[in-house]
């Protein structure tokens, strides 16, 4: 064990916080949280560890340790989720393809709010809904609701600045906007439409239909028949959508049902969102896991990563397995939602039936993913075999690394390495090199430096060598 690491282990604090394990290159390979950092970190270095376990493999690669002390365990939980999302450490469970998922943003802080699709949450006074996994479905939802409630799609600053005048666009002439840009719709009337859209996005369809019905009756009594007709059309559209979504879930109201399916290192979690007794959405997420990870660890990690970026929390979250930190998670969710959020792992009854339904959905998604991967593997295997024949190799080059050099002038020179595993790009193995030891433009010497550095590091890390090198 390295001396700096030994010194740090001897001086660990007893505070709550987060610990970051690093390898010899200084890369973060694991992030964990602890109520007591001293007690938790030292458990990794006990002699009783199973030598074949994932933890033992992790410990072998630990060269350094960083600590971040927090005020309490809830802060540590949030920080851990953020650091895992940002760094994607090798030995943590984390969401695959963890790009920034889309959200629907409603700029309620503006006099005449707009609805947009964004990739990042911001503390800007707007209302956010999501995250969603299907961008196509998000755009269809936004299009349907903005047309239904006549929300503007323009980028105008409203009300118009002094001396500035706008003209209504085509949306006004075809009945998709009330024309607030020309003062043809009041801020109060427009705000009613926005509030209706917010209720629809939140899944409060039954309450919304009741409110719209009251407004329709009032408009009719006051002989505002055109407005009453528009409200009637909105009610009918919402009823049609809610009938398609309707699923009998007994006494449950606002719930998220979490489903899990696993096979080998593949894992899929599904979130089925029920609001007012209706299924309003299903999101699925793939996770990077290890065969040794338990189901409760996978579910708990998913919850911290998903709900850490979820602006609208339900009253209850139903999970498929008991969680070791259930009370801590409930405390964190309560702080995030400013209202209690229950976490339940049902054993019998309707709750169990819903979890089984979510698990079936997760299994369906996982099976589709595995079938697709097998089809891709069959196709790429043929490509690899063809490459073996074309190059006259003794065996198929299942792993391959390719190098290239790029020059911009005489001073800005870089190298790159791309890696293929069974014909499939493996982006985690891609490397970028800044040329350090070659002056001027000499591609041969630069290539020698890049290839040498690549294999020297691979040998240092005791990683397998590729079957084929292309320069």
Give the overall shape: globular
Number of H- or I-type helical stretches: 13
Q: Write the H/E string, N to C.
A: HEEHHEHEEEEHHHHHEEEHEHEHEEEEHE
Helix content: 40-55%
Strand tally is 17
Gyration radius (Cα, Å) is 28 Å
Q: What structural category characterises the helix and strand content?
A: alpha+beta
Distance between the termini: 38 Å
Strand order of the largest sheet: 4-10-9-8-11-12
Tally of structural domains = 4
Q: Overall mean pLDDT score? A: 85
Query: Strand share of the residues?
Result: 15-25%
What does this structure look like?
- GO terms for molecular function: excinuclease ABC activity.
- One of its GO terms (biological process) is nucleotide-excision repair.
- With 471 residues, the protein is α+β, with helices and mostly antiparallel strands.
- It folds into four domains: 89 residues, GIY-YIG endonuclease; 143 residues, no CATH class; 114 residues, Nucleotidyltransferase, domain 5 (2-Layer Sandwich), CATH 3.30.420.10; 72 residues, UvrC, RNAse H endonuclease domain (Nucleotidyltransferase, domain 5).
- It is built from 13 helices and 17 strands.
- A six-stranded mixed β-sheet has the order 4-10-9-8-11-12. Strands 13, 14, 15, 16 and 17 form a five-stranded mixed β-sheet that branches. A three-stranded antiparallel β-sheet has the order 2-1-3.
- α4 packs across α11 and α8 runs antiparallel to α9.
- The longest helix is centred in the C-terminal third of the chain and has 43 residues.
């Amino acid at each position: 064990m390295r001396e700096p690491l030994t010194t740090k282990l001897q001086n660990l604090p007893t505070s709550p916080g987060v610990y970051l394990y690093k390898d010899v290159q200084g890369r973060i390979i694991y992030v964990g949280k602890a109520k007591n950092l001293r007690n938790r970190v030292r458990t990794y270095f006990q002699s009783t560890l199973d030598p074949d376990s994932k933890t033992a493999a992790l410990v072998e690669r630990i060269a350094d340790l960083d600590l971040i002390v927090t005020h309490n365990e809830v802060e540590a939980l949030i920080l851990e989720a953020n650091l895992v999302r940002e760094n994607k450490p090798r030995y943590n469970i984390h969401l695959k393809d963890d790009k920034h998922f889309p959200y629907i943003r409603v700029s309620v802080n503006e006099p005449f709010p707009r609805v947009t699709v964004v990739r990042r949450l911001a503390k800007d006074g707007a209302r956010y809904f999501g995250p969603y996994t299907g961008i196509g479905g998000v755009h269809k939802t936004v299009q349907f609701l903005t047309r239904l409630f006549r929300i503007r799609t323009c980028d105008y600053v409203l009300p118009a600045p002094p001396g500035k005048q706008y003209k209504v666009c085509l949306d006004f002439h075809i009945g998709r906007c009330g024309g607030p840009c020309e003062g043809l719709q009041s801020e109060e009337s427009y705000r009613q439409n926005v509030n209706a859209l917010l209720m629809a996005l939140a899944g409060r369809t039954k309450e919304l239909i009741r409110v719209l019905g009251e407004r329709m009756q009032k408009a009719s009594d006051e002989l505002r028949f055109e407005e009453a007709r528009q409200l009637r059309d909105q009610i009918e559209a919402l009823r049609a959508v809610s009938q398609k979504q309707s699923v009998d879930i007994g006494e449950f109201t606002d719930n998220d049902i979490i489903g899990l399916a696993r096979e080998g290192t593949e894992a899929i979690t599904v979130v089925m969102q029920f609001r007012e007794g209706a299924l309003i959405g299903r999101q699925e997420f793939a996770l990077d896991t290890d065969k040794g990870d338990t189901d409760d660890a996978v579910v708990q990690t998913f919850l911290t990563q998903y709900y850490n970026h979820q602006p609208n929390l339900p009253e209850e979250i139903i999970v498929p397995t008991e969680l070791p930190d259930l009370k801590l998670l409930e405390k964190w969710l309560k702080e995030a939602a400013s209202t209690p959020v229950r976490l339940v792992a049902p054993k019998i009854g309707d709750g169990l039936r819903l979890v089984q339904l979510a698990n079936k959905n997760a299994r369906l998604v996982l099976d589709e993913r595995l079938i697709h991967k097998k089809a891709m593997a069959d196709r790429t295997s043929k490509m690899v075999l063809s490459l073996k024949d074309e190059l006259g190799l003794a065996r198929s080059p299942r792993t391959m690394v390719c190098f290239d050099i790029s020059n911009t002038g005489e001073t800005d020179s870089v190298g790159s390495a791309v890696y293929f595993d069974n014909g499939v790009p493996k982006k985690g193995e891609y490397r970028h090199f800044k040329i350090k030891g070659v002056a001027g433009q000499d591609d041969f010497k630069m290539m020698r430096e890049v290839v040498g550095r690549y294999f020297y590091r691979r040998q240092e890390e005791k990683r397998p060598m590729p079957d084929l090198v292309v320069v």
